[in-house]
Each structure stands twice: as C-alpha cells, then as structure tokens.
Amino acid sequence: xxxxxxxxxxxxxxxxxxxxxxxxxxxxxxxxxxxxxxxxxxxxxxxxxxxxxxxxxxxxxxxxxxxxxxxxxxxxxxxxxxxxxxxxxxxxxxxxxxxxxxxxxxxxxxxxxxxxxxxxxxxxxxxxxxxxxxxxxxxxxxxxxxxxxxxxxxxxxxxxxxxxxxxxxxxxxxxxxxxxxxxxxxxxxxxxxxxxxxxxxxxxxxxxxxxxxxxxxxxxxxxxxxxxxxxxxxxxxxx
Length: 239
Known about the structure:
Number of helices: 11
Helix content: 55-70%
Radius of gyration: 24 Å
Structural class: mainly alpha
Number of strands: 2
Strand content: under 5%
Order of helices and strands: HHHHHHHHHEEHH
Mean pLDDT: 78
Shape: elongated
Strand order of the largest sheet: 1-2
C-alpha cells in the first residue's frame, strides 16, 4: 500500500508547493521529520527565492546559493523543530535576509572595485588630448539621454522612450567608460555639468514606474548606467 512517506522527493515537492506560500510551507512542514526538513531547503523547491523576493533566474541568488553563509542558513532551516510559536522560524528568516544582504554587498563591492581599477588603468594610459576627446564625447552622449521621459506627453510611455534612444545612449556611455576610459565628472551645479543628485532622482522615478512585466528588461540597463557613472567619476565624494 502506498503511503505519503513512500512517495519520491519530487512528488512531495509538488504537494508541498500546493500548500501555500513559502512562509506557510515552512510553518506547516518544518520539524515533522528530517526528510521533510531536507526537502524544504532543496533549491528546486524555490522557497528561498520567494522568501527573498527574488527571481529564480537572478544571478545574485545563484551566487548566494553557492556561498558559505547560505549553507549555514540552510542548516538552521533543516534543523527546525515544530513551529507552534514561530519564534525559531522568525529567527531563521532574519538570518536568511541578513546573510543574503551581506553576501550581495560583498560581491557588489568586489565587482565595483575590480571594474574601477580596470577603468583607472585604461585612463592612466591615455594622452591628455585623448582624455579631452573622450570626456567631451561622453558628455554629449549623456546630454542627449532623454531622462525626463517627456513627462508632458500623455501618449509617451516609459517603455517606448527607454527602449529607443535611451537604450542606445546607455550602451554608448557604458562602452566609452569601461573600454575607452572616458570620465563623466559629477557636480552639484547644473551649469557646470552633470548633476549626479538630480539624475539619481530622475532615474529612481523611472525605475519605480517600470512595473509592467514587459518593462522588467529595462531595469538592468538602468542599474548598469548607475554603476558606469559611478565608476567613471573621478570625484571621490561620489565613490
């Protein structure tokens, strides 16, 4: 006679996943037996991506899954007892969130510092005239980036504006900085040049309005533009 315990792990995962959201699943099945605990922390169940509000295809979550901090959190979840008062479960959730943020911060910092050093190395080999030419070129590229997104045109959409001229200019700015060594200096005064604070506010508004599913592909280029501008800036106040 077949019983719940004789079912293969893959079938149990399907049953568990139909039991509700990730929190409900952990609260319902944690501590019943060691096999179920091990199934709950299986990556294929994607409970952790739901708890962290991330996409299963996000490179950050894949890197996190291979970190030592994740294995430590997994051990905490795998040893959960029954969760009648939820105290132990809440502690595990706090550990999961904190370790993910710390891990992501470390990786982003390493990535930024490595790219920054590469940029500085490229720029150090440029001639004075070459620097002037490249810096003027990136200023022109940024000047024609339509960050205002035609706010007075009610027929203008975020997607149509960003996916045409802006996308081209974003790629151009990224190429000029990361492969050519161009620098876009940041100032507090619009009349002097690029005002980083105002641009940041505008781009955050853009990102906040990219809520449709077909707009998600535009978020990564926008974030990459943030990183590129920071790398290209020689003013240490913004680094």
